Amino acid sequence: EFGFKHLLWVYSGRRGIHCWVSDQAALALTDDERRTLLSYLEVIKGGKEMSKKVNVRSGKSADLHPSLRESYNRLAGRFVEIVLEDQKCFDKKEGGWEELLKLIPRQGGLLAGESATRTGVLTEWAHATDTVAALREKWEANPDRPSRGKWGDFMKLRDADKSGMLEAAAEDIILQYTYPRLDAEVSKHRNHLLKAPFCIHPATGTGRPPKHRDPVIPVPAADGSAPKATFISSLSFKGDVASPSSHSASPLPTPTQNPNELSGTSSSQPNGSSSQPKSPAPAPSPTTASANNTPNGNPNQAPTYEPVRGRAPRKSKSEAMAALTARSVSPSERGSAGTTPQPNGVSGGPRSNAASSKSSTKLPQQPTVPEAPPVDFSHIKMPRRNVDPPRTTPRPFGIEDCPAFYPTAEEWKDPMAYVKSISDRAKSYGICKIVPPEGWKMPFVIDTKTFNFKTRLQRLNSIEASSRAKINFLEQLYRFHQQQEAVGPVVPTINHKPLDLWLLRKEVHSRGGFDIVSRTKQWGEVARAMSYDGIVGVSTQLKNAYIRIILPFEQFSDHIRNSASMSALSPEIRYPPTSPVAASRMGGRSGAANQAPSRMSRMRANVPAANGSVNGKTGISASVSRTSTPLSISSSSLSEPSEEEKPIARSEIKIEVTPAEDGDLAMSGVATTSTPLPRISSQKDKPPDYVQGDSCEVCNSGEKGTQMLLCDGCDRGDYDAAWLVVEPHVADISSGYHTFCLDPPLSYVPKGQWFCHICLFDTGGDYGFDEGEEHSLHSFQARDLAFRKAWFEAHRPPPPPEGHNDPYRYKVGDVELGEDDVEREFWRLVESPLETVEIEYGADVHSTTHGSASPSLETHPLDPYSKDGWNMNNMPIVSDSLLRYVKSDISGMTVPWVYVGMVFSTFCWHNEDHYTYSVNYMHWGETKTWYGIPGDDAEKFEAAIKSEAPDLFEAQPDLLFQLVTLMSPKRLKDAGVRVYGCNQRPGEYVITFPKAYHAGFNHGLNLNEAVNFAIPDWLNDGRDCVRRYQEHQKLPVFSHEELLITITQHSTSIKTATWLLDSLREMINGHITLRQKLRQAVPNIPEVTEEHDVPEDQYQCAVCKGFSYLAQVTCQCTKQVACLEHWTELCGCPHANRTLRKRFDDDQLSAILCKVQERSTAPITWRRTLQTTLTGPGKPELTALRSLAKDATEMEVTLPEYPNLRKFVDKANHIVERALDILRNRPLPTFRKYLPRKQTSEPQSLSDGEYDSQDVADLLREADELWFDSSEMRDLANLDKWAAAWDERAGAMIAEQHHAGPNAPLDRTTWDALFFEAYSHNYRLRRFEDVGRVAKRIRLLEELRAVQDTPLTMEDVEELQKQAVNCSLPSENEQAVKLKELAERGTQWCKYAHMVLDTPVIALEDLNKLVAPPCSVPVFPSLLERVDSIRGRAREIEKQAKAILYPS
Known about the structure:
It is a single chain. This protein is of the alpha+beta class and 1448 residues long. It is built from 44 helices and 32 strands. A nine-stranded mixed β-sheet has the order 6-7-26-23-28-21-20-8-17. It has a five-stranded mixed β-sheet with strand order 5-25-24-27-22, with helices on one face. Helix 35 packs across helix 36, helix 37 packs antiparallel against helix 38 and helix 39 packs across helix 40. The chain starts with 6 loop residues before the first strand and ends with a helix.
């Protein structure tokens, strides 16, 4: 219809079918034009909650659009074949013909009119009220009626309908079940064209040629036009039956219009700008440029870029595809002036100033990805099946190993079933290891030459909780003393070492604080705890140091926390955007509230050196000297005050901290002033002309600016740009304070830095992993090998103890290492305050942009492992994983992430998103050590790590969400937390269980792949995690409510209902209760119900950041929404302005719950029926027990009674099978005629049955002992009675025949009926052989009478005599006498013939007599031929003799 000719149809697996259109007109289509074309073609639209999905008519019976009429004519012929006969869509009630009835209009008048007007086909429904009721009544009465029959019933009604409504309904039904569903989102945006044949992939820069073809990478023509080989337009068809949409004509060119004119069309926005596709904007790359980077503001001149080094957050899972642009496009292309980067790497677009109405979108020249040298796998450990030998020495720190499982090949087939089978045992460890069966090996498919990835820098001793808490405390302490008008205190030196202020404070706090320790005189215990034994006066030194240095800071801190000034501050001042509290207020991360969640909060970026290195260094530093820091033993600023300090009171302290070269704080000795507590007024008291930074935060006045102090920590100039999008007014603003408004007031403006009390305590909140370099696998391998060799040659481990058996020891250079050696060295470095090791880790490498390490159906469709359930690409979406019901792919959760580790690279303590299961597979490399804490000990773990570093968690309550904190397994074990270890090697899996915290590190270069999954026992944990996210205002990854609803829509099995019911009931009942409370609080609140799902950001609570899928509260003043728990905090408007927006109304939710509850009660009904069957009067019927066993199997749920029932039914079936063998009807015999004589002379065998009365009695006894009844056993019980009766009848007939005499006539019909009745039963009868002989005798006599006038041979006579003996033919019988006479005559002839032939001289006359015996004399044909032969020779001799004697 649109003139497109170049179409390529491509099957795309589970995504359906793609139609790639390569016409030039299609190349020029904008997203708006694609959307218009799709609206014209789209017929089916709507979700499963909608029954009627085809609405293409202007009236109920209006005709179809001509285009649809043509489609209908093609589809109608296939409807019967596909829908009715092949798929049998209407055979069952639920999901079958009930759905059909929903699509049929209720036509009451058709059946309620005059009888005379009714057609003959409607008489059977004369009593029905309408068409739907009539069909339902008939189909319920005949549930086995096939789909074609049900459709025929509807056709009868359609034919009788004169209004045309049923005709239109029938056409719509055929369209709904056969017309393809278009995937509109894939088809209408150009950013979904990345997998088109011949397209250049934006991440790799390589072409995507069809399979089994030479690569063809099209290059744009000189004029910039797209190459003709590029398929730039597509329609994507989903494989399932979906929903209806209006089918109206669209403002597209007619088929006769010039296709090239399409390129000039675009939709205009109200402001005059071109419309843009509503696809998500690409995530900012680590290297970015502002819009003002173009020289002199010239949009046509290429901008300049400066590398920006900063904290590297874990990328948002849902931003994986958006990251394609930042990863694949060069800086010059990304920053082309006036252009907007498109998700597929296409620059220009509708926002380009240079784009004219007649230019088409152009493909830029993609950057070439340089190939790296291949990885040297000769030095890399590859998968092999290892069975861990028993340990001869305990693990480091005395922790136990988690269980390792070795499934068989049969157990390995179903991953979810196997995880369920080991879950009860392994869950108490938090983690477990699984070793695949022999012969199973997942292929590694990454191209090591082109695989590049970004790393993160990890400073090991900064990751440890207590170390980082110590750094933060000392930084706050020094910042506090820096601002006091006092001479810097002298830190005591004890045992020639400076006093550890952090440890002193920790020991004092562990004993209740300064007052309690002083009152109870515990300073000696403090000294002993700090290993200061036997030192004279050490207790006094410690106490004095505490009073001079620590106590003033603590008193100031308490004063600040308890002051009203904190609550008086506005949120944006009280919680700076990069502070932990602000992060939690914004969902635990910086950035706009509608951004997708990430696993780690975004930290404040530190500006690096100009060369892009970290701290001015490159590579990895094995030991970084951090001089002039509070942690350094060489720091002397406390003990040596600056000469510039003014002499002041002895009780005051003066300390200065200045930035050192490496970014740490160094003590300089420059005098500064104090930090008084400002008396801050509330926001509502501020005057209208108040301007933050220009006005005093205390008096709100902007006068006397020369006496205004600006806090050096409140500057927002370096805050995240994403946060400034939300709060742009706080950029480059500092909090201002008059010196005379402070409490106490200052008499002069300080010379150095000055911090307000908020910033004084806001230290350490910017911690995060720095972003490292970009590596290939080859360069990362070289770095790891070089560092490992250098490190362990300089830090050689001690030799193993005697008798230590470690099969995994290996050499690095000339150093022999064991796994325990690396483990001990790792934790030594983590806990070392003086030795800083910086490591790189290639973590969270998105497989969507870099490719999965395992084969997938998209990349390797012919590889059998691409369909394997243990494949990381498949495990989240196998049949029993609940994550398959999440409607979108989540990178890192349902789409795997790749991890490339080097020695000592680590992943910190965390549990999985939404407390799901996780699975991690090592493709190759060195060992990865894991630590797991069972979910039951999660609270103990959190308490232990918080007690280790309480200041960290006070400042950052969501710290554990950020994956940046470690704590030694030994200290956790000492705190009563169960910790288990595991060494993962190549080819092995590690499973983590719900809510289980886990951490670990790598022993060297390795490559792992990980993903999440969930099974039904996770549901309660997932609900608890959502509640925890709400408490911490952390963005969830998906909606738990939507997941439960989606499960009810897509899985209607009894098995699903049994485990889903409790969670669904709790959710729905709780939600309805919240609705009722809202309605009571806001009477007559407006309510609207959405018919379709809306994007997640439209039902995300602005307060708790949770997803409120089922209902939200909105207000006219804002686009934000609130959940039903926080609706009062949405805004300050009157409650009457609120609106309750629902996805489902109360009745719909109740109906959903009722359906699931009805299915879930099937096991209860089954048990009740079983009990009734077993305890009823008489024996239970076997058919009922069989039906119960079948129902239990189909339910796929665990029923305790089922195993015993199955055994019972199997035993009963075995008895019944033996009974059926007795009861089976044997095929009736065929009596053969005896003449003409057959080749065999064996008499015909008519065998008796195989079973006798004893066999029957034994089976009846077994059935009685098992206690069941069946029709077969009842028939068997009647068999003995029948046998006795038959024997009696047979005996009477035999006796009667005997008395009648040998020549009495026999009734063949009577005797045959008696014989065949017995023969049909496989039962041994006493009179059977006698009756059989009589039946044979009757047939023999009939045959004798038939051949009495027929010449017989002697062989025939002998055969008849044998049969006479076999059937006991009485010798007195007339036919028996004749047969005997016949045999005697034949015998005499034979004797005479032998006598003649034995005579030496045979007379010709004797031969003439023998050669023509009478007809009544039977002879042997062979003997007769011999006689005739001799006679012929004799006559020849006679003839010759006569010729000699009588010559003519």
